[in-house]
Amino acid sequence: MVIALIFITALVSWYGFESPQWREKLIFSPYLAKHNREWHRFFTHMFVHLDWSHLVFNMLTLYFIGDYLFWEFSSLFGAFKGAYYFFLLYLMGGLFATTYAYYKHQDQPAYRSLGASGAVTAVLFAFITAHPMQSLMLMFIPIPIPAYLFGPLYLVIEYYAFRRGNTGVAHDAHITGAFIGIIFVLFFMPGYSQYFASLLDM
């Protein structure tokens, strides 16, 4: 499942690099979604990226975190149901990552966004919620940080970048994706939520 998502995303993104006109048909445009009823853009934006660095960063995170979570879902729920839950998590992360942008920019023809960041962040925060004691690292801070600290730190950085604006990055998508990942685990994996709550009481 994870390798298939990475392969399809890399292939579609690469074709988009070669043909910007074709990529334009897939990226998220709230204006076109609303006024031209191009609802497919709520999903297709997840499979195209701005450049190779954007693609590689997202896919590396998906590979290292997503693969672990996928096999965990498969062991908990069975192969078919585990794959279904993982894909649902990924899809929901990408879909709901567009909600704020749609609300704010639906009447602005110039607004565009693309990439799997919302979906990947949903996977990342599902992992953080399920495994709060695991260590993770930020690329620019190569020091292992417990997941229960990494998550809030990540959200604080994203929030301040979002408030500052003009970064060229859809920080709202990252924040929304993070909350989707948290909610998904709490809803579908209540045992983990009880474990996380017990840690907070320590």
Written description of the protein model:
There is one protein chain. This protein has 202 residues and is mainly α. 71% of the residues lie in helices and 5% in strands. It has a two-stranded antiparallel ribbon. A hairpin with a 2-residue loop joins strand 1 and strand 2. Helix 10 packs across helix 11. It is globular, with a radius of gyration of 17 Å. The model has no long low-confidence stretch (mean pLDDT 85).
CATH fold name: Rhomboid-like fold
Question: Helical proportion?
Answer: over 70%
- The shape, in one word, is globular
Q: In the CATH hierarchy, what is the superfamily?
A: Rhomboid-like
Q: Please, how many helices?
A: 11
Number of structural domains:
1
Number of strands: 2
Q: How much of the sequence is in beta strands?
A: under 5%
Please list the strands of the largest sheet in the order they lie side by side: 1-2
Secondary-structure element pattern, one letter each? HHHHHHHHEEHHH
The profile of the biggest β sheet is: 2 strands, antiparallel
Class by alpha and beta content: mainly alpha
First and last CA, distance: 37 Å
Average of the residue pLDDT scores: 85
Radius of gyration: 17 Å
CATH architecture: Up-down Bundle
Q: Secondary structure elements and their pairing?
A:
Elements: H1 2-18, H2 20-24, H3 30-35, H4 41-44, H5 52-77, H6 79-96, H7 99-105, H8 117-130, E1 135-138, E2 141-146, H9 147-164, H10 171-188, H11 190-200
Antiparallel strand pairs: 1-2
Helix pairs in contact: 1-5, 5-6, 5-8, 6-8, 6-10, 8-10, 9-10, 10-11
